[in-house]
Amino acid sequence: MGKSKGKAKVMKVIDPRRAPPSKTFNCPFCNHEKSVTSKLDKAKRVGTLKCGVCGVQFQCIITSLSAPIDVYGKWIDECETMNNDGDDAAAASDSDADSEVSDL
Ligand SMILES: [Zn+2]
After folding, report:
1. Is 0.90 topped by the overall pTM?
2. Which CATH number goes with the domain that contains 72?
3. By residue range, what is the domain housing residue 85?
4. What's the gap in Å between 26 CA and the centre of ligand 1?
5. Domain assignment of residue 8, yes or no
6. Distance CA 58, CA 49 (A)
7. Less crowded by CB within 10 Å, the N or C end of the chain?
8. For residue 17, is it within any domain?
């Protein structure tokens, strides 16, 4: 019993919610939609994003597996970090931040 002969399930599912890989993104600085274009130079391992409206640029190191959305995600992360840093620097003291970093 339990003879499972049905091994005919092909694991190639395309998720319809997953949009085709996009190369243009919304700019976090000027908030224009799809004004940011991406360029991944995999030979140099540099990913570049540039907004055609306000001209802001972002560069980061990529891998051969990186996609434009990864670079964009990194940019957004960095923007948030920068914002947080700016807020914190005004309030928190340096020694406080130091002890937290050394803990990790
Ligand atoms: Zn912009």
Report:
1. no
2. 2.20.25.190
3. 24-89
4. 8
5. no
6. 5
7. N
8. no
Residues around the ion ligand 1 (C-beta < 5 A): 27, 29-30, 51, 53-54
Checking DSSP bridges between strand 36-41 and strand 46-51, what pairing results, if any?
Answer: antiparallel
Q: Round the CA-based radius of gyration of the chain to a whole number and report it.
A: 21
Distance 70 CA to ligand 1 centre (A): 18
Residue 57 CA to ligand 1 center (angstroms) comes to 9
pLDDT tens column, 62-101:
999 999 999 999 999 999 998 887 655 555 445 554 555 5
What is the count of structural domains for the chain? Answer: 1
